[in-house]
């Protein structure tokens, strides 16, 4: 698929959106920015909520593809998650369908499968075909988003790459993150691959760097053309000295979702 020229970036004022605003233009993209929070240093950005269907139609009109990062990224009440992450994602897909946008990259999350036990020892890497086991209302909304993407592919032929993002920060801040860290540079590489790969249908991929302590299988991500170049291992010695190794007897360490699987969920994720 030729590289899309104009890409709508929702959630552009958030942490991940801000990182991608700085990195994606180097791949040749013209970004149209959308967020409920105004972006002061980005003239022409769209400040609107995902509940605003007219604003969404305007936002998607004429773009070549969408990167959907918007929504609540931590646990919240079901009503808030419903409005922002579930109804909001539906509204975006409906706007894209009405305007003929054929490719979306959906920011899913490892928390869609958060109660899946993490690999230990010689256990195999976890495939993307592992059943949904959301660990929070937030994780439930990401499971819904993946199923919604599948529905829009099967019914309307709209392609989506659902990226189960791990933790995308400048560097990992916990021992758990050593296994699921996605460097900002690798994130941009993965999003670019998802935007340009041929015939993705609805593809689910894990989003992490090539970490030595990797938990999940990156085969489907690599099949898109993703070539991760970073590894969390240089941060391991310091983090393990400060926090100790993961303990499988600790409920917050036993599953992929980490502290999201505890009640109440604890941060960071």
Question: Which helices and strands appear, and what pairs or packs with what?
Answer:
Layout lengths: L5 E5 L4 H9 L6 E6 L10 E2 L5 H8 L4 E4 L9 H22 L3 E7 L27 H20 L2 E7 L11 H4 L3 H13 L5 E6 L11 H5 L12 H8 L7 H4 L15
Q: Could you name the CATH class?
A: Alpha Beta
The number of helices is 9
The Rg value, from CA coordinates, equals: 18 Å
Round the mean pLDDT to the nearest integer and report it: 95
Count of domains = 1
Instruction: Assign the CATH superfamily.
Output: NAD(P)-binding Rossmann-like Domain
Report the end-to-end length measured between terminal Cα atoms. 34 Å
**CATH topology group:** Rossmann fold
Task: For the structure shown, list the relevant keywords.
269 residues; alpha/beta; Rossmann fold; seven-stranded parallel β-sheet; globular
In short:
Helices cover 35% and strands 14% of the residues. The protein is α/β, with parallel strands linked by helices.
Molecular structure report:
The chain has a single domain (6-261), classed as Rossmann fold (3-Layer(aba) Sandwich), CATH 3.40.50.720. Helix content is 35%, strand content 14%. It is built from nine helices and seven strands, in the order E-H-E-E-H-E-H-E-H-E-H-H-E-H-H-H. The model has no long low-confidence stretch (mean pLDDT 95).
């Amino acid at each position: 698929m030729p590289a899309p020229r104009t890409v709508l970036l929702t959630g552009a004022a958030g942490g991940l959106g801000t990182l991608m605003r700085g990195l994606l233009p180097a791949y040749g993209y013209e970004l149209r920015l959308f967020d409920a929070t105004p972006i002061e240093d980005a003239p022409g950005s769209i400040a609107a909520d995902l509940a605003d269907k007219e604003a969404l139609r305007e936002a998607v009109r004429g773009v070549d593809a969408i990167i959907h990062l918007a929504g609540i990224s931590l646990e919240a009440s079901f009503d808030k998650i419903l409005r922002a992450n579930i109804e909001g994602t539906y509204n975006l897909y409906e706007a894209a369908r009405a305007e003929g946008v054929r490719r979306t990259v959906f920011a899913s999350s490892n928390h869609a499968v958060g109660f899946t036990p993490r690999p230990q020892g010689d256990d195999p890497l976890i495939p993307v075909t592992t059943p949904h086991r959301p660990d929070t209302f937030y994780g439930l909304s990401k499971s819904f988003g993946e199923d919604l993407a599948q529905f829009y592919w099967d019914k309307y032929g709209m392609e989506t790459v659902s990226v189960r993002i791990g933790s995308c920060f400048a560097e990992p801040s916990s021992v758990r993150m050593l296994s699921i860290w996605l460097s900002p540079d690798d994130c941009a590489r993965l999003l670019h691959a998802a935007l340009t790969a041929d015939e993705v249908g609805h593809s689910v991929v894990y989003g992490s760097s090539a970490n030595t302590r990797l938990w999940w299988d990156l085969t489907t991500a690599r099949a898109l053309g993703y070539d991760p170049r970073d590894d969390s291992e240089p941060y391991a010695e310091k983090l393990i000295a400060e926090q100790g190794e993961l303990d499988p007897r600790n409920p917050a360490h036993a599953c992929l979702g980490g502290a999201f699987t505890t009640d109440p969920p604890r941060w960071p994720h």
